[in-house]
Structures are given as structure tokens and as C-alpha cells.
Prior knowledge:
This is CRISPR-associated protein Csh2. This protein has 303 residues and is an alpha+beta fold.
Amino acid sequence: MKNIIEKRYDFILLFDVKDGNPNGDPDAGNLPRLDAESGHGLVTDVCLKRKVRNFVSIKYGDQSPYSIFIKEKSVLNNTIEQAYKALNINTNESPTDPTDGKKRNKPGSGQGKEVERARRFMCENFYDIRSFGAVLSTGANAGQVRGPVQLTFGRSIDPIVSLEHSITRMAVTTDSDSEKQGGDNRTMGRKSTIPYGLYKAYGFISAPLASQTGFNQEDLNLLWESLIYMFEHDRSAARGFMSTRKLIIFEHSSLMGDVQVQKLFDSVSVSRLSENKPARDFSDYAVKIDKNSIPSGINVIEM
């Protein structure tokens, strides 16, 4: 483990969407997620992590140490089992180390120090495990990993307005569908968007937890790059035009941090320039950082 980060980091991510659905809710007909009481839009932390994973996967493919554990159509237990094979541990035979037991308690599953070895292997080879952690206790069992990088839901600065649009496809799927419509091969559908929304999410990076997973300076730089460019390779007509607008990083001077995070986040204000018209662009907002309220020892980095 080289160049493990030795400082705590907290950050604010500002991103926006124009004429799109940033994160549909499958339990609500894929409408944009929102806070039912306030009307503010929501984007889940899982959605944001997915975009980071996708960016890293596009950049590095399946190349270690930047492989992605949680990826589309993957079978997680098979991936954990591959870790044991790479370590030459046969989980169907008795442990080779007597301290792990004289016999295999559960065939196909690691035990004793084998689990820690498998856990370390997974951290070393998979970027998203080093960053976000993972539950690896299923199947062959590689324990659990608590990741140093955590994100909150993104929440829109202002309430959002969800619009539904009728869309038409000038074709049908089968001959029987065509016959039912008398040769008028048009099918109708619905599409949900919001005209504009500026979202704010909070992030936290723990140096003590980074030392446990091996999250290092190169991983940190890749995280910043991913957060800035994650929408550039995630374009979709359904999601409209999404962009990262600002990344504000608070770098502490110590392992445990110098101040409570809310004091840092309270120093950043995002406000609309005019209340007389609805916001339709990032330029309709002002982002201000009150650096006089930030304690000494904190380095503010704006990207």
C-alpha cells in the first residue's frame, strides 16, 4: 500500500440537468425522484456511484487495479470465488494453514485468515471496493469492506417541475401489432423530464478507512476526475443535458480532520439571482464561498 492518503477530505458536488430525467424512480413510473413534501428533486447516492464506476470502467476497462466489482450483469459470488483461485486457495479442501482449522467448516467458503487474504486481494484489484466498500460475505466469503468514500443524495437547490411528454414511434414490433392498428404503425409512449434543476450532493473521505482499503493518492485523483467528467460518457436522450458544474473540496491538514464538516458546508451558499423568473441555466445561480468563516488549516480547492 503506497501513497495512502493521510488527510481527511470533504466535498460539495454541484451538477445540473436540462430537459431530462436525472434519476427516475421505478416505483413511480420512472418519474424524476423528488421530496414529496418540499418538491425538491433527488438523485440517489447509488446513481452517482454508478456513474463514477462507469467512468473508471470506460477509462481502464477491466484492468487491475481499476477493475469494477459492481458492474452490469456481473455475478458477484463468481468474482469473489475468482479471488480464492488467484490466491491458490481451494475452498473445498481442508485449510492449508492449521490455524484456520483442521477441516473446512463450510465447503466452498473461506475461513480464518483466508477471508482476510481474499478481502485484501479484492481491495487491491477493484477500484470501487477500495473507494466505496462492499459486502463480500456471500458465496466464497471475503468479509466486508467499509469504504472511505461516501456520498449523500443529490438534492435540487429549488423545487423541480416534472413534465410528461407524449412521444410517437413510427413503427411496431410485430406483424400482429401492425394488423391490430390497420397498417398505421404508430405507437405512443410517455417521457418524463424536468426543464432545469441544479443539484447539490455532499461527499466525505475518511483517511483512517482509506488505510484499511488501500485508497491512495492516485485513487483520489481518479475520483476527482470521475466526478468532473462522469456525465461526458453517460449521455442519453432520457437524461437530457447533464453536467458537473462545480466541485468544491475541503482538504484538512490531519488524519482525523480539523473541524466539523457542517461548518465547512455552511460556508458555501447557492442562491438564485432572480426570483422573478424560473431558473433555466447554471448562470441563473450564484455560488459563493465565505472563506473568512473557514478555520485555518483547511485548504479549499475549487474545480
